[in-house]
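Example 5.3 — Methylase
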Amino acid sequence: MGTVTRGTTNPNRLRRMDRWITAVHGAELRRADDAVAVDLGYGAAPWTAVELLQRLRTVAPRTRVVGVEIDPARVAAARPYEREGLAFRHGGFEIPLPERPLLIRAANVLRQYEEAEVAEVWARLCARLAPACADSRGGLLVEGTCDEIGRRHVWVALGPEGPRTVTFATRLGSLDRPSDLAERLPKALIHRNVPGEPVHAFLRDFDRAWAAAAPYASYGVRQRWIRAVRDLTADWPVTDGVTRWRQGEVTVRWGALAPRG
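Solution (predicted structure tokens):
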């Protein structure tokens, strides 16, 4: 289910997303007896799936990764890279696995779709996640967009119940102002960056906080970012703390940025 993407990818492109996943979802993966992660729509080359396995296994050594691609030729090209814990399958949004994965990563996949199609795709993918239980929040879907070399990235995190948070992540040295990240908003938000929509108000306030934090630039761009995010917390439900902010990240509850109407 779905359509073939352009398939462009580069090694290390998804490092920021992977770093966040290992930090916030690593414990769930470690607790599982058979943790399965899916790299959905990995593209014309298998680099992102190979890297996902390497990064997840630093926090959860038993994790298996399955790369899923809708283009059979790409699956055939990836098969020589299979190894213990890494496999490739032909498929799409139906996620053709017998088990329900603890993680589905879909980076730069929905960019080519219409905004109206996003909710249905999200619902289909969330339904394939491992369910929540007494000691687990269940699986995690991470869906977002980044630039070609992974300097700027925005993603939505969803659980079996639906969207939870939005994360903005950047290489701080490449940033002029936080609203530069608007061009990498995921499909659910990119057309909502207009006056009257919450995501537009958030980026406006972020730019104002960034400008007010300019004196902290003498201590480095990281300190300026931390100060700007700290100021944002007065009006926006930021869910993370300084440890993540130092990485050039900030995560906000989905409900605060969700489109109106």
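Remark. Residues 197 and 259 are 6 Å apart (CA to CA).
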